[in-house]
């Protein structure tokens, strides 16, 4: 109920601010000053993020080789699961006594042959891959519930999570652990996600640029002692820290963001591994993208509302990280402000006094410029130079404008709808090509 009330209050506040801004010049100029200041801040984050990504190295194997268990939650993933597991079991993470990792596949109530395909791979690698099954109806139908189910079966001191469509090189775990060695006090770390199907067209390529700009933003926040976050695919957390903050929340809509906030609220740090890459499949259809982004937005907003106040009150969290968290939360205020200023401006068209259209224009341009700067940082950090950087950054920033609509819709859903109780799977290219239509599933 409190979450619903907060979402409603945010929508009402956005509408009030929008009306004031398009009606009174002093309010409009104040809002535009805030936008200008935020752009300066984003530019600074982009610079620091670029530097951190550019300088990231995977040097030195290190002495410590804690055991790593990779968790893969899979429901009806037959088209992709065998290839994913084949890449995971080939990891070179080892010491003198042999491999220091294992893979645990959770067949989360699949109705296709996901479990059978995984078991075939496990038969060839019994020392590296295990398969457990969670029956349908065994708790909430969320990815986090599958991870919670798998947790007692996990052997590792480090718990890694990868998606069922992940692609990795043999040195992936080693690279993550090397990156972690530069920040050993951190209790978790996030690898660089890339769209492995980015050659499929504009949509897929833009999502790859979005992933790079997200890492640039995260690295910028981390470099200024901010609150870096986990991103689901390619995230690793120390088992002790995970259990200390309560483990996986089975009902979390976005388990990665929810866990990140709990860790930060406990005074812990999250590191980043921009040089260790894990591939994932970008969504190539508009309906699929809309469903995915709406879930992401709703999950992120819910955890900000539910867990944010506790983080801001926590004595264990330094003031700098609290301010960074507030600045990040502010990103979610721009979309509802933009939509409400546009709506309010349209409503004033028949009135004698026209609206100040520079207000929604400033919000749109400010959001786009911030995205452009972060995209430039992420793309340039990969070593690309020349006009290609500008072209990719422009595509990435144009693509990110969809959040201006997604976030307000998510707020409305939270305010007047019911919280999602099932995880709707984003259908992959393999599903569309090889599988008959089935009922919606919970996916990674």
Structure description:
This protein is an alpha/beta fold. It folds into 2 domains: 2-54 and 324-416, no CATH class; 59-286, Spore Coat Polysaccharide Biosynthesis Protein SpsA, Chain A, CATH 3.90.550.10. It contains 16 helices and 9 strands. It has helices at 2-23, 25-55, 78-88, 114-124, 143-150, 172-181, 202-223, 239-244, 255-265, 286-313, 319-330, 334-347, 358-380, 387-400, 403-416, 429-434; strands at residues 68-74, 94-95, 98-99, 101-108, 129-134, 158-161, 188-195, 235-238, 270-280. The chain has a 7-stranded mixed β-sheet with strand order 5-4-1-6-8-7-9, with helices on both faces. A two-stranded antiparallel ribbon has the order 2-3. Strand 4 (101-108), helix 4 (114-124) and strand 5 (129-134) form a beta-alpha-beta unit. Helix 1 (2-23) packs across helix 2, helix 1 (2-23) crosses helix 12 (334-347) and helix 13 (358-380) packs across helix 14 (387-400). It is globular and about 80 Å long. The two termini are 28 Å apart. Mean pLDDT is 90; it is low at 431-444.
Task: Spell out the key features of this protein.
alpha/beta, 7-stranded mixed beta sheet, globular, 444 residues
Number of continuous helical runs: 16
Cross-sheet strand order for the largest sheet: 5-4-1-6-8-7-9
Quantity of strands, as a count: 9
What gross morphology would you assign? globular
Beta-strand residue fraction: 5-15%
Structural class: alpha/beta
**What is the ordering of alpha helices and beta strands?**
HHEHEEEHEHEHEHEHHEHHHHHHH
Distance between the termini: 28 Å
